[in-house]
């Protein structure tokens, strides 16, 4: 056996535990889920083959499209704002000044809180008599119904932004620190303005980091459950009903219909697979 | 072929093999189809029996202490091991469903719900003999009906959870509105809200729960929907759906109207549309509202958190009222020890006086007994001045209860659809569309009647 082949085999051997785990906790359950989505099943009963019935139900349901739309609005607007704030703060805190270390540490605080803690914090903030309205009133403004039908989506997005932007900040900061200082010095000698330096050096240098962080965050945000469930539960009515919340509700609340919930997940799986593909590609894998 | 292409091919091949192996493994390991779960034969007598018990945590801890005490007493007497787990109100339904789906439900559920979803699928042990031993005629008919499916009893309701209108009597006196209580008609609810509104600056006339994610929204509305003569289901079939037929449609519209008036006129706090179950409790305890409907858990909390307010709070039932007591004791067929489990259920209620004192009176009558004999004792005590918080005789007040939170009406029985529509907050969604968003009542009714028909068809097949 050649040394190279031996090495390769060893590498596979080391990867084997992971493969086994993936096999048992991902491949088998997902196979079951796909299989179940083609059945109907009452609680405690045996699945009965139903062909495409569940998929047909979903495609003809207004709620399905509403949840897709809500999920896209929630995820893309949240990720976009997080990316902008994260980049701005990263650029700012990449400069040398007194107290920078403290500010860097302080900035990642929201991200360090678990989702449920953030949800509880904002629950109190969003209360009609809560902190946000107290601030608005102190400024002489009218209080807002933060969780009303019209405002609920904005409110859950705001919560997600508050919780998630430090992840972008940390990613970008790492990327910024990897840019050689010589590049900026050379640009300065050539008389480049700060905007030109940012546009022509900073952004291109951290482009892979920007993409990777955004894709990862997009995946997580699309799958966000805790924050929405604990603040609005998908409501009022269907104002913040996203794919994960609706899947959970179908499985355990509104219908107790596992096959339909499985079909829901199966239909949304390609979105995640595409995101995973692009993320891995950006990471050079 | 380049090295890169080779590597990609190998990687794809490996993924494919792993996936295929997974699929093959899944189909090989799937157990063959089983008939409906049957009780298994008890193991040899040498093993000490063990019962796994799940309980729903109650709002009044003494009830849990009493249940624990009774279960352990029984276990000691019968040489049985017991494992008790208490689950939060919002969790127990989902955990039971997940456990049943995983094929591993508990043996006994105490104070739990839902029930119909399991009973209708034949997953529970019939307990007719236990009910008979407890003297069937001593149990309120409403409570018996809530546990009966196909002529058999599958559960015992643990209590009446009457939904009392908690009223700030000091505000009532200021408004000189004593004559309104107890309310004579459902319309009086709106009149009272208006009379008591801002009598004390900043105190709203009523706390009307209208949030999406709270059971209170549903059963408060049920008072009006049912009370005005509405109906949901007459039988377990599509043709049994009557909510959009006259005169039931008109009654439902009337129910929407009264709540919409209260909402649009600002008689309830502006954030009531975001309330969860505890929100109206808090609003009352903090003195922000003059009245609200709730099980007597508000009064129980007031006794410790705000005794001054407790002293000026009076409780009445609406002229047509709703019981929220769907909490029940039931046994899953998967238990290895059905007879032991039944004996435990019997033991919990056999000493009716102990049940009244330990489970009902200890909760400040948040729970009212299911036994007529024990209600008679409470009625006697009320007349003797023992429970000044009640504005009317609790035993007589129970006669006003015509509906139950998770039962289809006028059918009067718990059904899978009435349980899931409540559990999934589907009715709350309907209420919000009509009351908060002000959508056309007829359109809303048509939409949700269709939803109900679809679900009835899915569950009962036609």
Question: What do you see in this structure?
Answer:
The complex is a heterodimer of chains A (285) and B (462). Chain A is mostly helical. Chain A is built from 13 helices and 2 strands. Chain A has a single domain (62-282), classed as MetI-like fold. In chain A, helix 2 packs across helix 13 (258-282) and helix 10 (194-222) runs antiparallel to helix 13. The longest helix of chain A is centred in the first third of the chain and has 34 residues, at 3-36. Chain A is flat, with a radius of gyration of 24 Å. The model of chain A has no long low-confidence stretch (mean pLDDT 90). In chain B, helix 2 (61-78) runs antiparallel to helix 15. Residues 34-40 of chain B have low confidence and may be disordered. Chain B contains 20 helices and 14 strands. Chain B folds into 2 domains: 50-160 and 326-378, D-Maltodextrin-Binding Protein, domain 2; 164-323 and 425-460, D-Maltodextrin-Binding Protein, domain 2. Chain B has helices at residues 3-29, 61-78, 89-101, 116-119, 128-133, 141-145, 169-174, 187-196, 215-227, 248-264, 277-285, 297-305, 307-311, 338-350, 352-360, 372-383, 394-397, 416-423, 426-436, 441-460, and strands spanning 50-56, 81-87, 108-112, 148-149, 152-153, 156-157, 164-168, 291-294, 313-316, 321-323, 328-331, 401-404, 407-408, 413-414. In chain B, strands 2-1-3-11-6 form a 5-stranded mixed sheet. In chain B, strands 8-7-9 form a 3-stranded antiparallel sheet. Chain B has a two-stranded antiparallel sheet with strand order 4-5. The longest helix of chain B is centred in the N-terminal third of the chain and has 27 residues, at 3-29. Chain B has 462 residues and is α/β, with parallel strands linked by helices. Chains A and B meet through helix 1 of A and helix 1, helix 3, helix 18, helix 19 and helix 20 of B.
């Amino acid at each position: 056996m050649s040394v190279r082949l031996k090495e390769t085999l060893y590498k596979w051997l080391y990867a084997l535990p992971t493969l086994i785990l993936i096999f048992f906790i991902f491949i088998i359950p997902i196979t079951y889920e796909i299989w179940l989505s083609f059945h109907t099943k009452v609680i405690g009963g045996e699945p009965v083959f139903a062909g495409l019935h569940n998929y047909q139900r979903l495609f003809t349901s207004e709620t399905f499209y509403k949840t897709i739309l809500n999920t896209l609005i929630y995820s893309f607007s949240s990720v976009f704002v997080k990316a902008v704030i994260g980049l701005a703060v990263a650029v700012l805190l990449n400069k040398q000044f007194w107290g920078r270390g403290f500010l860097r540490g302080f900035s990642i605080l929201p991200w360090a809180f678990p989702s449920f803690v953030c949800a509880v914090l904002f629950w109190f903030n969003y209360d009609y008599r809560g902190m946000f309205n107290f601030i608005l009133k102190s400024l002489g403004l009218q209080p807002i119904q933060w969780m009303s039908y019209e405002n609920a989506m904005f409110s859950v997005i705001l919560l997600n932004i508050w919780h998630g932007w430090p992840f972008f900040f940390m990613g970008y900061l790492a990327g910024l620190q990897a840019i050689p200082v010589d590049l900026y010095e050379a640009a300065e000698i050539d008389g480049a303005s700060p905007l030109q330096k940012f546009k022509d050096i900073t952004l291109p240098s951290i482009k892979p980091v920007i993409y990777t962080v955004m894709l990862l965050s997009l995946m997580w945000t699309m799958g966000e459950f805790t924050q929405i469930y604990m603040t609005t539960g998908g409501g009022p009515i269907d104002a913040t009903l996203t794919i994960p919340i609706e899947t959970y509700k179908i499985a355990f609340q509104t219908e107790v219909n596992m096959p339909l919930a499985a079909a829901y997940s199966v239909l949304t799986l390609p979105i995640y697979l595409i995101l995973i593909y692009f993320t891995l590609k950006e990471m050079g894998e | 072929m380049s090295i890169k292409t080779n590597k990609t091919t190998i990687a794809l091949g490996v993924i494919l093999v792993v996936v295929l192996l997974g699929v093959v493994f899944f189909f090989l390991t799937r157990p063959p189809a089983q008939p409906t779960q049957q009780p298994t034969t008890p193991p040899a007598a040498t093993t000490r029996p063990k019962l796994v018990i799940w309980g729903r945590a109650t709002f009044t801890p003494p009830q849990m202490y009493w249940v624990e005490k009774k279960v352990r007493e029984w276990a000691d007497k019968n040489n049985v091991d017991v494992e008790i787990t208490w689950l939060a109100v919002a969790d127990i339904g989902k955990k039971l469903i997940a456990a049943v789906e995983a094929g591993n439900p508990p043996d006994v559920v105490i104070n739990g719900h839902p029930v119909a979803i399991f009973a209708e699928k034949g997953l529970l042990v019939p307990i007719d003999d236990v009910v008979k031993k407890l003297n069937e005629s001593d149990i309120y008919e409403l409570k018996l009906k809530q546990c009966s499916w196909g002529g058999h009893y599958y559960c015992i309701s643990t209590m009446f959870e009457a939904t009392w209108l908690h009223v700030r009597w000091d505000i009532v006196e200021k408004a000189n509105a004593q004559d309104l209580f107890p309310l004579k008609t459902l319309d009086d609810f709106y009149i009272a809200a208006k009379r008591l509104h801002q009598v004390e600056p900043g105190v709203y006339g009523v706390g009307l729960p209208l949030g999406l994610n709270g059971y209170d929204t549903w059963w408060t509305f049920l008072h009006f929907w049912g009370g005005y003569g509405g109906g949901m289901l007459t039988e377990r079939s599509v043709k049994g759906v009557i909510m959009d037929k006259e005169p039931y449609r008109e009654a439902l519209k009337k129910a929407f109207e009264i709540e919409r008036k209260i909402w649009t006129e600002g008689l309830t706090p502006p954030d009531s549309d975001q309330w969860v179950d505890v929100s109206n409790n808090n609003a009352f305890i903090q003195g922000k509202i003059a009245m609200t409907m709730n099980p007597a858990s508000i009064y129980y909390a007031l006794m410790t958190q705000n005794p001054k307010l407790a002293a000026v709070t009076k409780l009445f039932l609406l002229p047509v009222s709703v019981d929220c007591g769907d909490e029940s004791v039931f046994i899953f067929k998967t238990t290895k020890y059905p007879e032991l489990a039944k004996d435990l259920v019997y033991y919990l209620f056999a000493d009716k006086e102990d049940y009244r004192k330990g489970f009902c009176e200890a909760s400040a009558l948040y729970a009212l007994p299911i036994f007529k004999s024990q209600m008679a004792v409470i009625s006697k005590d009320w007349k003797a001045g023992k429970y000044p918080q009640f504005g009317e005789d609790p035993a007589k007040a129970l006669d006003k209860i015509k509906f139950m939170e998770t039962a289809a009406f006028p059918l009067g029985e718990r059904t899978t659809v009435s349980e899931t529509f409540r559990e999934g907050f589907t009715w709350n969604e309907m209420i919000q569309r009509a009351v908060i968003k002000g959508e056309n009542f007829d359109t809303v009714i048509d939409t949700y009647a269709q939803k109900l028909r679809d679900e009835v068809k899915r569950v009962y097949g036609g």
